[in-house]
């Protein structure tokens, strides 16, 4: 393709990227302020220029071909580069400004992220932030999210990842509960105690622990199952039994001694653990504002 031909289909590349991100001509048209038929014609023109089919069209859905998926990645880089050009004055000025949308798990957003975002906003008055607190996985392309915070042991492929902090699950109970029940010296002792599982599936009652090279599993019972860490914390403090919590949720209760860590020499092997990562689409063109926010979070949580 000649240089002039490349320049002539730049708008079509942007339109194709929006169709790939939103999954339909109609949604892309709404985002671009045009009509679905105009969007369809632009994609067809791009396919004609390239000589390949990018999208498989059916009456119910659109699906990218293998070539279309490869083109989506390259078009994304193209748009990111163009956006970076628009950020050049801001980058030279060195002052973060503009809008950033962030998603994070609810507990992490409440106990860790919220206060740090308030600090960032106070430091940079020309920045606008939107925080989406959700425990559901977010599609950043479809939902317009610039930065995702995810707690995991294995960051997902396809994203740039920066580790912010390690996250561990802490087994704890209220002092009054422990005083009124048999001592706990081994995970197997938990079978005789009231525990507070998540209750999302049957495996949530199978608690696994590790000490060195030794692993053990115990099936726990309890009168109250709840899949929200703040509510499990309240139930534990009310004396309903033992629960596991992310360390950042349990920290204040442990510090003021309203809760006591149980079996501190054992590591709880739950699904929610590993590290908190800042995830964003990989690109050489990261805006100064997003870079400043990631650096702020990393420095605070180091």
Automatic annotation (TrEMBL):
It holds the Pfam family HTH_1. It comes from the Bacteria. The keyword Metal-binding does not apply. Keywords: DNA-binding, Transcription, Transcription regulation. SUPFAM superfamilies: Periplasmic binding protein-like II, Winged helix' DNA-binding domain. One of its GO terms (molecular function) is sequence-specific DNA binding. InterPro entries: LysR-type_TF_proteobact-type (IPR058163), LysR_HTH_N (IPR000847), LysR_subst-bd (IPR005119), WH-like_DNA-bd_sf (IPR036388), WH_DNA-bd_sf (IPR036390). GO terms for biological process: DNA-templated transcription. Residues 13-65 form the HTH lysR-type domain. Belongs to the LysR transcriptional regulatory family. This is Transcriptional regulator, LysR family. The lineage of its organism: Bacteria, Pseudomonadati, Pseudomonadota, Betaproteobacteria, Burkholderiales.
